[in-house]
């Protein structure tokens, strides 16, 4: 664990784009900081690591009015440190590669403020490794140069020697060059670099929106204009820019470039988004549901006082477990309320959530429906005359209860939470669907489907190119009832199963 220094500034590299490419030390410092000054290029998801009470200052350096000057950033850094705070200055990529760290350090030294520099993965390195463009390769590039494009505009005090760059026998990587790409290409060619030299642009490196455009040096400007490449982007020039498709792992992932809408509650969407990102997809969160605890109901409180009467307790979702233990904590109780109870869970994730509270479930069958859980529990335990407490969502179906009762159990079903409709930015999503920007709409529960199509008419989806993927038959049935064309129903009723099924379709071996 980092021992944060007070009245001190950490100049931290946020890495190239994808949030988890930051260093471990960088992430730990974000967790403990009192104040974070954040660059535009640093992934905003990193700020979720920060303490809830940490002060976050966004310092985008744009050209034009409303922008923050380097001088203002220096002053803010000094002022926050002199207030005795642990300050993290979060910069895209590596802080010292075209990062103006020198100016910040001079200001800190003048004010007598201590500092540390935490390296980060610079954009060039990451762009190379996420595209198969090797910056160095013993066959054709034994050297690499990082160059700022800012000075291509004929600035008098430019340090760039175009003659040398034109002759450079390795890979050239230009940062901040997209606005002056034409000048860069012209200058290199004017100084003798061959017009057919391979060139590539890599935009949004390491993000699911990453793009690569290739052309020869004399055609790269036109190609980028036609492809509408936007910053941030790097320009790579030299034999390396041709790329090696053997080494391109990132863009070959089946979900790469696929925009996938998730329609769960906020926490569910965040968890699902991680899985989509891990497979190279581009998640778009659209909340349809807010989870609302019902643990202040009289029914729940009454059952708590009689927990001792039950033989088995069943949890069917991680949400249920979390809400139950939050309610326990509020009442000053803990896992000991279950001391002599036997516990069953629906799904390994529910069991894993229970384990976080120190409880090992007694029965965790690998099933995905309440009915199947009930069947298996009846098969392994003699439930005849036994008292079973089921703690679930108010919206759960009665299948589980019916099966248990058929097995002779005396069942008490107490709702722990309910889900209320809550929709995200409807207009924005509808536009994206109608413009053909969405590849998949995913539904992980019937209530998500209902709430989604209350907000967006089924015809808007049926008429477009977005495909509809459902987590299982119950959700598909609901979608059918709503008049929605279902393109795919997962075989395994989990979010991983849903993504496996989407991958199969994208690979061309699915239904
Ligand atoms: N310190 C940063 C660079 C800052 S200069 C680093 O080490 O990466 C800003 C330039 O970096 C942008 O104009 C662009 O050329 C490049 N850049 C940063 N992030 C990028 C990304 N994800 N994809 C492509 N280029 C990126």
Automatic annotation (TrEMBL):
It is an enzyme of class 2 (transferase). Keywords: Cobalamin biosynthesis, Methyltransferase, Porphyrin biosynthesis, S-adenosyl-L-methionine, Transferase. InterPro entries: 4pyrrol_Mease, 4pyrrol_Methylase_sf, 4pyrrol_syn_uPrphyn_synt_sf, 4pyrrol_synth_uPrphyn_synth, 4pyrrole_Mease_sub1, 4pyrrole_Mease_sub2, CobA/CysG_C, Siro_Cobalamin_biosynth. Its EC number is 2.1.1.107. Pfam families: HEM4 (PF02602), TP_methylase (PF00590). CDD domains: HemD, SUMT. Residues 9-220 form the Tetrapyrrole methylase domain. GO terms for biological process: cobalamin biosynthetic process; methylation; siroheme biosynthetic process. Residues 271-499 form the Tetrapyrrole biosynthesis uroporphyrinogen III synthase domain. Pathway: Porphyrin-containing compound metabolism; siroheme biosynthesis; precorrin-2 from uroporphyrinogen III: step 1/1; Cofactor biosynthesis; adenosylcobalamin biosynthesis; precorrin-2 from uroporphyrinogen III: step 1/1. One of its GO terms (molecular function) is uroporphyrinogen-III synthase activity. PANTHER family: S-ADENOSYL-L-METHIONINE-DEPENDENT UROPORPHYRINOGEN III METHYLTRANSFERASE, CHLOROPLASTIC (PTHR45790:SF3), SIROHEME SYNTHASE-RELATED (PTHR45790). Belongs to the precorrin methyltransferase family. This is uroporphyrinogen-III C-methyltransferase. It comes from Anaerobaca lacustris. The gene is cobA.
């Amino acid at each position: 664990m980092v021992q944060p220094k007070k009245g001190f500034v950490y100049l931290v590299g946020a890495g190239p784009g994808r949030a988890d490419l930051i260093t471990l030390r960088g992430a730990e410092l974000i967790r403990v900081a009192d104040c974070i000054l954040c660059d535009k290029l640093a992934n905003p998801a990193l700020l979720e690591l920060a303490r809830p009470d940490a002060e976050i200052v966004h310092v985008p350096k744009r050209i034009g009015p409303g922008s923050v000057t380097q001088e203002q950033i220096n002053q803010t850094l000094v002022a926050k440190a002199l207030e005795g705070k642990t300050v993290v200055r979060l910069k895209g990529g590596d802080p010292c590669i075209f990062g103006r760290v020198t100016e910040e350090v001079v200001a800190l030294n003048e004010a007598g403020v201590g500092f540390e520099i935490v390296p980060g993965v610079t954009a060039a390195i990451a762009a190379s490794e996420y595209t198969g463009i090797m910056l160095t390769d013993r066959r054709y590039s034994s050297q690499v140069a990082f160059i700022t494009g800012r000075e291509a505009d004929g600035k008098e005090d430019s340090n760039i020697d175009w003659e040398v760059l034109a002759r450079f026998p390795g890979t050239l990587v230009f940062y901040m060059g997209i606005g002056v790409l034409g000048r860069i290409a012209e200058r290199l060619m004017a100084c003798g670099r061959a017009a057919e030299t391979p060139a590539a642009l890599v935009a949004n490196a390491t993000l699911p929106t990453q793009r690569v455009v290739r052309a020869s040096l004399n055609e790269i400007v036109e190609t980028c204009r036609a492809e509408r490449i936007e910053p941030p982007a790097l320009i790579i020039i030299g034999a390396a820019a041709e790329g090696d498709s053997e080494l391109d792992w990132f863009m070959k992932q089946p979900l790469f470039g696929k925009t996938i809408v998730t329609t769960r509650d906020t926490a569910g969407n965040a968890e699902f988004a991680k899985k989509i990102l891990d497979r190279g997809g581009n998640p778009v969160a659209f909340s349809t549901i807010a989870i609302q605890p019902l643990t202040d109901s009289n029914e729940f409180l009454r059952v708590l006082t009689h927990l001792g009467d039950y033989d088995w307790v069943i949890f069917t979702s991680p949400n249920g477990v979390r809400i139950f233990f939050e309610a326990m904590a509020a009442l000053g109780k803990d896992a000991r309320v279950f001391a002599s109870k036997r516990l069953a869970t629906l799904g390994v994730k529910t069991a894993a959530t229970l384990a976080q509270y120190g409880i090992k479930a007694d029965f965790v069958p690998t099933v995905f429906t309440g009915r199947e859980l009930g069947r298996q529990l009846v098969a392994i335990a003699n439930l005849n005359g036994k008292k079973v407490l089921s703690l679930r969502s108010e919206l759960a179906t009665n299948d589980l209860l019916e099966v248990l009762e058929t097995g002779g159990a005396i069942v008490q079903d107490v709702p722990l939470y309910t889900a209320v409709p809550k929709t995200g930015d409807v207009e924005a999503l509808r536009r994206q669907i109608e413009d053909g920007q969405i590849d998949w709409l995913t539904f992980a529960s019937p209530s998500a489907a209902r709430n989604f199509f209350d907000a967006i008419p089924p015809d808007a989806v049926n008429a477009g190119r977005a495909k509809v993927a459902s987590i299982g038959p119950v959700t598909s049935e609901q979608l059918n009832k709503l008049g929605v064309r279902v393109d795919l129903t997962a075989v395994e009723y989990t979010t991983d199963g849903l993504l496996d099924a989407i991958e199969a379709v994208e690979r061309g071996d699915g239904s």
